Amino acid sequence: METPPIDGQSDEIRTASPLLEDSFLESEGVSGDWFGVRNDLNEIGIQPYAEFTGQFLANANGGGATGSSWQGLLDFGLEVDLESLAGWEGGVFFANAFYFHGNDISGYYVGDFNAVSNIYTDTDFNVFNIFLQQSFADELFTIKLGQIAADDDFMVSDTALLFINSAYGPLPVESGNITAPIYPLAAPGALVQIEPIKNFHFQTAVYAGDAGPNQSNVHGFDWRTGGSAGMAWFAEAALDFELLGNGVFKLGGYYATTQFADFNTGATESGLGAVYAIIDHQIMDPSVDAFGLSVFCRGGVTPDDNLATVGAYVDGGISLHSICFDDDALGLACSHTIFGDDYLNATRASGTSVTSTETVIEATYAVAVAGWLSIQPDLQYVINPHYSDRDALVVGARCAVAF
């Protein structure tokens, strides 16, 4: 089982080959093998991990005000292969938590809707995932139960995970509209995945409708379900294809039975949904071509304009891999968020000035300088930040250290 990294970075970049040939640099963790203890644990199916992601971002021009922010995220957890540990065939247990420290560059300086940092959170210490996963018939059928997050399994584009802006994670037609669990909050849920034929799989899940407030004193356990919080149901079908390389096409959607305020009447109404589609295509493979080339495109729309903050969204981008060093990546992406007309009318009527759309252009380059260290300079240009009347230029860099 592969669990998506909490910070939105791809495992490919975090565990990329080092630039220098050295046993210390090639190790997967800066702390080594713990005098053999790490290897002994791995052999019996226990894989502890810890990773620190630190970044410096500065709003160099425009937005609400110029300024900078340092952010750090320590993500740590444990994955247990129950078959290796106890003979439980197909069973996996996973749990993780994180500690975050830093300032909100988006809220203080940029004034954007989609945060320029996908690791920022108002919380400090949170328990995140705690789940049991069971696979049957060589993973043709899989179930996952526990405290889980929807964006670990739905709306995912592997190519988009390279980028730092939060828009390239869970789609804003979901993250901007409902309170279902996504980073930094998980909540009780159940997921079922089935692969009835080769190269096609279908998955569906139900989650608590409200993952709770994003604040430090709840530590990830103040979720609510049923009643006004309702439930959130997700479904997604994925088809792998081979056409000018290898790719995947995904078609999905969600429906939340949570109670929402009608922007036109102020009355409470239950039920908001959206549909989305994703194409993620590796056109060139660095193992056989001179370098790797991947592209992605995602889009989503909701018909519930009277309840939805975000009415539609689209993004796309390109990534070049292994161009200068093994497994480095150079990416360029653009996202466009369209806000609902009813939401805009109600917000402006209350005296708050907001933009009708928000566009983000991001250029980034990630390279592993060791098996346990990656560095990623980043440049973002935010056009029409939702809460500001000036385009913003954000520059910065991220590093990730695996322990």
Provide the fold topology.
Elements: H1 11-14, H2 23-26, H3 37-43, E1 46-62, E2 67-81, H4 82-86, E3 91-102, H5 105-110, E4 125-136, E5 141-148, H6 172-175, E6 187-197, E7 200-208, E8 231-242, E9 246-261, E10 268-284, E11 292-301, E12 310-321, E13 329-339, H7 341-349, E14 357-370, E15 373-383, E16 392-402
Antiparallel strand pairs: 1-2, 1-16, 2-3, 3-4, 4-5, 5-6, 6-7, 7-8, 8-9, 9-10, 10-11, 11-12, 12-13, 13-14, 14-15, 15-16
Question: Describe it for me?
Answer:
The protein is mainly beta and 403 residues long. The protein has one domain (11-402): Beta Barrel (Porin), CATH 2.40.160.180. It is built from 7 helices and 16 strands. The protein has a 16-stranded antiparallel β-barrel. It is globular. The chain starts with 10 loop residues before the first helix and ends with a strand. Mean pLDDT is 92; it is low at 1-5 and 7-21.
CATH fold description: Porin
Rg, alpha carbons: 21 Å
DSSP E strands, number: 16
Strand order of the largest sheet: 1-2-3-4-5-6-7-8-9-10-11-12-13-14-15-16
CATH first level: which class? Mainly Beta
User: What composes the largest sheet?
Assistant: 16 strands, antiparallel, barrel
Span between termini: 20 Å
CATH superfamily: Carbohydrate-selective porin OprB
Uncertain runs with pLDDT below 50, 5 residues or more?
1-5, 7-21
What form results from the Cα inertia axes?
globular
CATH architecture descriptor: Beta Barrel
Question: Which structural class is indicated by helix and strand composition?
Answer: mainly beta
DSSP strand content: over 45%
Oligomeric state of the chains present here: single chain
Average pLDDT, all residues: 92
**Percent helix among the residues?**
under 10%
Number of continuous helical runs: 7
